[in-house]
Write a structure and sequence with these properties.
FAD-bd_OxRdtase (chains A, B); 552 residues; redox-active center (chains A, B); FAD/NAD(P)-binding domain; 4 domains; 31 strands; alpha/beta; 17 helices; 29% helix; FAD-dependent oxidoreductase (chains A, B); homodimer
């Protein structure tokens, strides 16, 4: 058995190692165009910033180890230029001497990854304009930064953009992010990104939203960028982080089936339209675990698991990829934002019925020092209560909760299951009612009609024109900032002041996080009023309308 | 509707708040024997140590708030001395003036909690001998410590014992723990507690295992303890942390059904044998989610959820408690140990078939600074692959993984599901192959017979007498410490040195954590040898046999 693998990073290296573990006798050849295999692509920004100091650390596995331990014939700086499916062979080109040769295969695994997209704008190939994919890219960017550039412009406020911003700021560069959307981390719902946007600004980054670069030109001391708004920017270096495109050229040329967005099409055993060819990682189109639709999600975890699955199937062990649920996390200094499953914007786009709740809680018991606020947005199926998606933002404990919710989505748990999940509690690690339980409680209450709730976006539609708005917090909290138009009636006085509440129209009550608002709504409804709780209270309002207001 | 609640801490207060949310009109009376309601019992040790500085913080909710916001008639320092089930009334005694009175109920909820057990040994009631349950206890202990006691003896190395040790050490007290079992945190499997035992010792605590106190007597400057071994200890203060007993006196006197270990028996709606009486929290016997058997687990999270469920059922909303899975966590300075589901010792005791794997990994990507080692023990059903239990120990990321595994147990996920769970990965938060995925991989490989493994305990039985032991680590690692009797053949030389491996008996291979051992076993088996991987490698061996060896 002879297995040839194209690409030596996450998906390719995982395939190779698993293949050897499944067969001591197979011949395994791994081709890699670049000089390195199995490097830590997710660590690249942190090497620029100096958090990761030794370049060596980014090389997770070296060719020599793969060769010695796994007897994998690793051929770096070698590009596969063509596949001959009939003859079952590939044409390899040694990028050192240009010599080409044929290599036969029983099974071919394509793991070429995805390339950063270079938008077709003037100047995209100028010196000083970079994309970030591999160690060579990072060397070039770091070299530029080391030489004393003053101003970095990052195009795209996605995961890599925000991570680069952290690291440029750490290097004391003036940093500007230009983003086409009206938010950072566009794959996440906008309001959940507010703390990251505010942190970017408070750390000194300039955030230009709904903005794009139209042209880049050489200037006396670097580059001049013309933006869509007419504004110009001077930049010492520019990094483009506006998405990736599957490296599908080989697959296209070989006539393999390709998805509409360019991903190599595979079945859930990672087999392409040619039974002798498998494909894994950022280059493939996979199934979305939740929608069942086709998706392309460039993530390291799925790439690794897909490699394992491809090897299993090649060696006769049936193994299925269950689909991707797009779990992702990003840090920006002491802030963390994470997501799993579907977002509200995807649910709205797909016209999928859903309901949502917000929970604002401490990441561990409030009475123990160091408790940090954490916000969770939970999206669920109104009919079945199944969890459809979750996002969390805060400074501590974010990964912990998103991981639980990721497992919950995989296991098709409902909001009622979340109310009951028995998580670890000691005051320095959690709460007797963990934020995940709270999300389950709030969602169950909403689903049961126990506490009708409305959301900020609904309040800002028709409802806001008709309804009365009651702030049930303390006068001190009210004075420190409230939703325009609200009247303050503290919860603990509400029962005595019911006659102050208008009975001729809907009443929306809110507090800081939704707890007191909940009780207020129950009191008001018991008194015969048409009352609703503003989901997630003033804190959720503030996610939609940051104090800075620059976010709008 | 009139609901009377006996006990005002976790279970009682949760019942009361939920009851009010379900009915604005119900009359709700909550009796509490002590002066405080809803205090943070899990925080008590940290107030002694000064981590929590303000006593006020331990009072999560005050009677005045419960009264104002929830219109709960809170009667502290009032004990319920009898239940008249026929008349549906309780006899209350005001502990201030001794006045007794009757209070009727439609529904009664018992949430009396559990009392620290006082073993029947001489001197158990002497001044300076304490148990820890409430704020009054903690005031007394703190007062003793503040007065300058030098040596604290903690009897019992369970959760409270270890937490107290941390806090006494923080206060610079000489600290000794006396524990009957041969390990700390006896509810967890012994080898997983090794890092905590070692940390206790390295922080200066004296750990006396397989030891007990036979008598305590007053001495010139405190107390003298006679231990079973014949040893004596001088102590300034003694805290007994040897378990709790359900406060079942009222229930027993009222003729309610009681379990064999004293817990008030309830159905899964938290209803006792009297349909008008519910019971929740540490005083009840509940169902073990995994075994289906009866259990008593005094934990705050379950108590809170049970209170909610009791209120739901009282007010006609059907709600079922799904059983307890004994998720728990304990910190000792920068070490954390957590558990969920069944332990090996319980599985062995119950003769339940299981298999286990160990994973030693970093809590986040190793190439990012600050990665800390984390060990996971996973127990699974050999037939179905269902996760039966998990334990984790390390300094970071322990709660994160145990929480995922707790959700996995609740959702009846299998080891194969764990291999695929899509957790959040960026280098500062996790790994592309998270420790939970790794546990799933290793368990799946073991279940598939891909890599036969043996465990340290098996090696130490018959197998060790027959088998050859091969250490496949580097000579440097081997020289730094190896399992007695092992021969060093580094993995990367193994294929060339196969003739050195004996073919006439089983061969056990091991490395540091089990990864290289896995590859070694595959190479050896391919060569026709009867080879096995030592599960979890040298690190697991070291959990069983700490370098200190005092633990044995």
């Amino acid at each position: 058995m002879k297995v040839v693998i194209v690409g030596g990073v996450a998906g390719g290296a995982s395939t190779a190692a698993r293949a050897r573990r499944l067969s001591e006798s197979a011949e395994i050849i791994m081709f890699e165009r670049g000089p390195d295999v199995s490097f830590a692509n997710c660590g690249l920004p942190y090497y620029i910033g100096g958090e990761i100091q030794e370049r060596e650390k980014l090389l997770v596995t070296k060719p020599s180890l793969l060769n010695k331990r796994y007897r994998i014939d690793v051929r770096t700086r070698t590009e596969i230029v063509a596949i001959d499916r009939r003859a079952k062979q590939v044409r390899a080109r040694n990028l050192g001497d240009g010599v080409e040769y044929l290599e036969s295969y029983d099974f071919l695994v394509l793991a070429p990854g995805a390339a950063p997209w270079k938008p077709p704008i003037e100047g995209v190939d100028l010196p000083g304009v970079f994309t970030l994919r591999n160690l060579e890219d990072v060397d070039r960017i770091k070299d530029f930064v080391d030489r004393g550039v003053e101003h970095a412009v990052i195009v795209g406020a996605g995961f890599i953009g925000v991570e680069l911003a952290e690291n440029f700021l750490r290097r004391k560069l003036r940093t500007t992010i230009v983003e086409l959307q009206d938010q950072v981390i566009p794959v996440v719902d906008r309001e959940m990104t507010t703390p990251i946007a505010e942190a970017l600004r408070s750390r000194g980054a300039t955030l230009l939203l709904r903005e794009s670069v139209e042209a880049m030109r050489k200037s006396a001391d670097g580059l001049t960028l013309n933006l869509k708004s007419g504004r110009t920017l001077d930049a010492g270096l520019v990094v483009l982080g506006v998405g990736v495109r599957p490296e599908n050229q080989l697959a296209v040329a070989a006539g393999l089936e390709i998805g509409p967005r360019g991903g190599i099409r595979v079945d859930d055993g990672m087999q392409t339209s040619d039974p002798s060819i498998y494909a894994v990682g950022d280059a493939v189109e996979t199934r979305d675990f939740l929608t069942g639709g086709r998706t392309q999600v460039p993530l390291a975890g799925p790439a690794n698991r897909q490699g394992r699955i491809a090897a299993d199937n090649i060696f006769g062990r049936e193994s299925r990829y269950r689909g991707t649920q797009s779990t992702a996390i990003v840090g920006f200094f002491d802030h963390t934002l994470a997501t799993t499953g579907l977002t509200e914007k995807v649910l709205v786009r797909d016209r999928t019925p859903f309901f949502k709740v917000y929970v604002h809680a401490n990441h561990h018991a409030g009475y123990y020092p160091g408790a940090k606020p954490l916000s969770i947005k939970l999206l669920a199926d109104p009919l079945t209560g199944k969890v459809l998606g979750a996002q969390a933002v805060g400074s501590e404990g974010v990964a912990n909760r998103i991981n639980v919710l990721a497992a919950a989505i995989q296991a098709e748990m409902t909001i009622r299951d979340l109310a009951e999940v028995e998580l670890a509690y000691a005051p320095q690690f959690g709460s007797a009612k963990d934020p995940v339980n709270m999300a389950g409680f709030v969602a169950s209450n909403a689903a049961d009609g126990l506490c009708p709730q409305v959301h900020v976006d609904q309040w800002e539609g028709e409802l806001g024109k008709r309804a009365a708005l009651i702030d049930v917090r303390t006068p001190q909290e009210f004075a420190a900032g409230a939703i325009p138009g609200a009247v303050n009636v503290p919860i603990d006085e509400l029962r005595e002041r019911l006659d102050e509440i208008p009975r001729d129209r809907p009443v929306v009550a809110y507090c800081q996080v939704g707890m007191r608002g909940y009780m207020a709504v129950l009191i008001l409804r018991d008194a015969g009023l048409d009352a609703y709780n503003l989901g997630g209270g003033y804190k959720t309002y503030r996610l939609h309308h940051p104090a800075s207001d620059e976010h709008a």
